[in-house]
Amino acid sequence: MGRRATFYLFDKLLIVLTLLFFATACACRYAASVDPILRPDWMLFALAAPGVIILNAIALIWWLARRRWLTALVPLAALLVNLPFLSAMIQLHGQRDVPACDLKVATYNVHGFRGENGFRSVVNQVAALLQEQQADVVCLEEFRTTIDYDTAQVVRLLGLPYAACDRSVVLLSRYPIVESGAIRFSEKRVNTTNGALQADIDTPRGRVRVLACHLQTTGVSSLEYRYAREYGMRFVPFGKLSDELMHNAQRRAAQALEISRQAAESPYPAIVAGDFNDIPSTYTYDVMARTLGDTFREGGSGWGGTYRGALGLLRLDYIFVSEGLQCPRCYTLDTALSDHKPLFAGLNFKN
User: Fold this and answer.
1) Virtual CA dihedral for 259, 296, 142, 154, nearest 10 degrees?
2) How many Å apart are CA 312 and CA 334, to the nearest integer?
3) Contact 180, 201 (CB under 8 A)
4) pLDDT for 91-139, tens place per residue?
5) pTM for the full model?
């Protein structure tokens, strides 16, 4: 086969791959609207969205560099189809000087206050961080205690006067918590070790309802640990891994529906904050974004990743708000106190 024929076949193969990338990108976008409780297999497309988008971006650059304008429209269309995901991950607002907000909310998965310098040191550093950022309402996930420090002592060290607790989720507030309670997820098919709670808080501008949550984890880490311990395997078989991912995606879907319902029923402006353990291309995010505003999309800047692992590419933590609130600024801080970044949102009442 001559050089020209080889190049011709290679070119046609790239066109086929480009069309395949486009079709997969469309499937990824559609997967966000598919309830994994009903069709769990579509969840795999939702999780594949970041990689598929990267492949389409590479294809777009390739065809533009070769000045194949019509062919370049295919990966461009794939990126436009997934614009909701891209806008939930990248914002170009730029850093803005924002005047003092009515309420500053934070969510932080503290990873059990684990750290090289010990439990007490990490708690003190988290407290200093929250004080420095002047957070008014703080939702903490993976909160834990020790033999030496019970919940009340840890809350006192964190420096905010009011608290509500449930399992490993703790809500702290500078303002009085009028009423609070645990949210018991209503799905009957599964059990969950994660938790959520809601609290009505009297702020100087009015009462708000805050829902703090830590949705079901992916289960990948525990599965990898079990296979390494029991079978001496470094990698989990794909079938077992996909089953675990789909099973826990179903849990998160049911939990997200419950959280969204309770936020919609709130008689006050609602704030939903926490670690959702899902990226913005998934059904979990889609459920929340249908009725609530994503503070990062409204007031964020740059890359929206909140998980420090996986090269910082994943966004797992969110602050959503109802229509009565707006967010002029949302940001993260890259601190090594946890495997997650703390997420902050400055909020204003609209009326």
Assistant:
1) -110
2) 10
3) no
4) 987 665 666 799 999 999 999 999 878 999 999 999 999 999 999 999 9
5) 0.92
